[in-house]
Amino acid sequence: MRTIRQEDFIQSVADAFQFISIYHPADFVQAVKEAHDREESKAARDALAQILINSRMCAEGHRPICQDTGMAVVFLKVGRDVRWSGDLPVTDMVDAGVRRAYLDPDNPLRASVLADPAGARRNTGDNTPAVVHYEIVPGDRLEVTCAAKGGGSENKARFAILNPTDSVLDWVLEQLPAMGAGWCPPGILGIGIGGTPEKAMLLAKEALMEPIDIQALRARGPDNRLEELRLEILDQANALGIGAQGLGGLTTVLDVKIKDFPTHAASLPVALIPNCAATRHIHFTLDGSGPARFTPPPLSLWPEVAWDGPARSRPVNLDTITRAEVASWNAGDRLLLSGRLLTGRDAAHKRIAGMVARGEPLPVDFHDRFIYYVGPVDAVRDEVVGPAGPTTATRMDRFTDLMLGEPVGLLGMVGKAERGPAAVASIRAHGGVYCIAVGGAAYLVSKAIKAARVLAFPELGMEAIYEFQVENMPVTVAVDSSGNSVHDTGPREWRMRIGKIPLAQPG
User: Fold this and answer.
1) What's the rounded mean pLDDT across residues 364-370?
2) Which of 16, 98, 34 lies closest to 281, judged by CA?
3) pLDDT tens by residue, 410-451
4) Residue 500: what pLDDT?
5) How far apart are CA 104 and CA 164, in angstroms?
6) 125, 111 in Cβ contact below 8 A?
7) Domain segments of the chain as ranges
8) How high is the mean pLDDT of the chain?
9) What is the mean pLDDT of residues 467-482?
10) d(CA 73, CA 52)
11) pLDDT for 507 beyond 70
């Protein structure tokens, strides 16, 4: 019989979430490095280089890998002979640990959790409550897995109940193109097969907690149907040519993890959840001897990566930019933005739309300005802003025509992932432009921000409208003023290069 002290558990959870906010798992760094070394697409290779450089910078600077520091998910396996010393319920202990981690003054993590999701959507301020799953198992120890899942990848989760004779492989390959780049590839696919609908989703999430081992599996050969399916999905998913950040390339998926469970004879529930370029999870065990200890990996884990993106980019002054200059850009051009850059995302766009509808004056002059879709982490020490990577732009598609037209008059937008057909049509009609920064390179991007001040809606916290003073912020033209999109041309080109995907046989 072992006794787990309440404080040991709380501190372990807090330390775990701090640790995974800073350090990528070693297997993920190695997998991205291997993808970088074999990548033939210049755009995708550049994105992979930024992800690796950002990862090392975070390890050195002890700052979050991504501005979206995720929703806290905790899996507990509680030994039936474990005793607790403390007065809090288990879920309250988890929340206390999450609260301590996310409010840590040395490395504050962004609060992204909103209460009353169908109503006021009020930020809880400390990223609680966590999502907790636990089970009672034999033994006298407590096994804990902590994961921080960002909204971009969670939003791309998929579920279906297939016919028992349908192909899981075919279904996954149908889903991936529609998922776009909002989940920040390259990453891992977690797949749950069987059980009931909620069981399949839980299996998919649990699968993402397993180590990356697909190349070892390929080397030894599969031992069962699930291992065969992992290799089939990996190869055919990468043959889609989606590539890093959706720019087209050889690697979209680093590994495929599958868990299954017996199911009803009439059903084939299948769930798909991706892990993004900010893959964050850790496992530890408590045995009553004290809190868990997490040892930072040596900096030698991170490879030295050459990145020549800035040398091949065009400097742009946002303070003197003209529509004629924007019209000269082509999709795929690399830019270095300098000058004053506005920010705004979901909540701010909704506020602006309401003000325009009511005929109210806007708090900011957006005419011929650029806006960055971002919700930054709070600054610490000498920072002007914390990690500030892009959020998924497609969520702002419904506002694009409003923002580019009168009376708002925006000229350009910066985010991540593709834009939908209506947004592309609006960009073309208004002669605007949409650029992308690399999702998964938030700390690297923040180093280009030299000053920051809130201009409007301060009560929205990280969703307020800021004005950044940027210097040589690296972006790529994703949709030019003629409506050409790299998220269309890039994957199409690389799919043709890789070769057509053969029809999957029923399995």
Assistant:
1) 97
2) 16
3) 999 999 999 999 999 999 999 999 999 999 999 999 999 999
4) 55
5) 49
6) yes
7) 1-150, 152-277, 310-491
8) 96
9) 98
10) 25
11) no
3-state secondary structure 99-123: HHHHCCCCCCCCCCCEECCCCCCEE
Q: State the Cα angle at 139 between 138 and 142, rounded to 5°.
A: 105
Q: Reply yes or no on whether the pLDDT at 503 is more than 50.
A: no
Pick the CATH number of 310-491 from 3.20.130.10, 3.40.630.10, 1.20.1250.20, 3.10.450.50: 3.20.130.10
Residue 321: name the closest of 406, 411, 400, 450 by CA: 411
pLDDT tens digits along 191-239: 999 999 999 999 999 999 999 999 999 999 999 999 999 999 999 999 9
CA angle in degrees (0–180, nearest 5) for 305-53-478: 100
DSSP, residue by residue, 387-447: --PPPBGGGGGGGHHHHHSTTT---EEEEBS---HHHHHHHHHHT-EEEEPPTT-HHHHHT
Cβ-based neighbour number of residue 372 at 10 Å: 27
Q: Of 497, 38, 501, 505, whose CA–CA distance to 236 is shortest?
A: 501
Kindly state the helix (H) or strand (E) to which residue 237 belongs, with its residue range. Answer: helix 225-238
Identify which of 185, 117, 144, 189 has the alpha carbon closest to the alpha carbon of residue 19.
144
Q: Tokens 């995720």 — which residue?
A: 70
Task: Read off the pLDDT of residues 68-84 as tens digits, 9 standing for 90 and up.
Answer: 999 999 999 999 999 99
Residue with tokens 């891992």: 188
- What does the alpha-carbon distance between residue 317 and residue 409 come to, in Å, rounded to a whole number? 18
Residues 6+ apart with CB under 8 A from 495: 239, 240, 241
In the block, residue with structure tokens 């040589």:
472
